[in-house]
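Obj.: predict assembly geometry.
Materials: sequence records (below).
Method: joint structure prediction, all chains together.
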Amino acid sequence: VSYLPKLKFQVKEFEKWNLLHFEIENPITPNEIHTISPPKLHGTKGVILSGRGPIWLYCYLAHYYHPTKFIATYDPREGGAVVVESHTPEFKIGDIIKIKE
Amino acid sequence: VSYLPKLKFQVKEFEKWNLLHFEIENPITPNEIHTISPPKLHGTKGVILSGRGPIWLYCYLAHYYHPTKFIATYDPREGGAVVVESHTPEFKIGDIIKIKE
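Observations (raw structure tokens):
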């Protein structure tokens, strides 16, 4: 069986976080979750998740990167990325991080 | 200042999980995340999150209940709740749990 990639990941490194953008190239179902291989990211920085995808995928990725400094999810309605978990007082849950490209 | 409740929680206990349904009664912004008080739930069972809300709220709640047996997020498109993290081999990441009311 040939392997059809479901998700494409792109990483942009910033001073205090990695911006992880994903694109769903082929429809992905929950039972295929193990076929995706999120990139290794430095735990010394936070991770900002960005991309159009279902809630379960976001929650999975947030948990996947749990050992990193903090996790935020990009939400255009909030004008930035919302911190949803954190291990550093510098970024608190509920903070909004404006991402400057 | 009078306190305006933002989220209403409802818990239904099942044999192996608690179904936590939330409703956003008043628009909630990320900086108000600390005003919500999710109910205490037994860690010996899983938690299924359900409700219409933003991704950051789901990720926050998933992390909040991280110490429980497993976390799943209800997704009507998948016909059930998708397991997004688990500490038990009985429920694996990517499994779909059909909720019978």
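Conclusions so far: The longest strand of chain B covers residues 17-24.
To do: check interface contacts against the pulldown list.
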